[in-house]
Known about the structure:
This protein is an all-alpha fold. The chain contains ten helices and no strands.
Amino acid sequence: xxxxxxxxxxxxxxxxxxxxxxxxxxxxxxxxxxxxxxxxxxxxxxxxxxxxxxxxxxxxxxxxxxxxxxxxxxxxxxxxxxxxxxxxxxxxxxxxxxxxxxxxxxxxxxxxxxxxxxxxxxxxxxxxxxxxxxxxxxxxxxxxxxxxxxxxxxxxxxxxxxxxxxxxxxxxxxxxxxxxxxxxxxxxxxxxxxxxxxxxx
Length: 201
């Protein structure tokens, strides 16, 4: 049984590690998204470097792989709340540290949304609303991402099973940690804002 659990989580990690943002950027003419813009392998950097259509496609694919991981684990173990939630975290880790890109990936936001939407839909909707509101108010995607992740985890404790909530909290901690450099730049006033090119005043 333990071996099966490990294999399921490994599979979720591998699904999460599929570097869709990197591949989409290449499809739209950016040879290596890690060498342009912020250097992040995520939908926001793809959008800034390869265009809105590329960014939206990367966003959709990154969210889809998260959903595939948690839904797939749920179908294998339909009586378990913990396994699909743990698979969601494994998929997020896969996106953040993909084996295919020397473990240097994105920040896990879109993958996290896709992974937790089937497990905690109300909490995920609240997290998305918090993301939109805070990103719009501050003009910082990084702030919106961190606020949205924390709100999702907080609401999961109210709306869902404890196992899902604790996994959502772990995912939020990972996402905030991955944004630590962005948050330092926000504090210093050097973080790139929405609708403003990098380097403008």
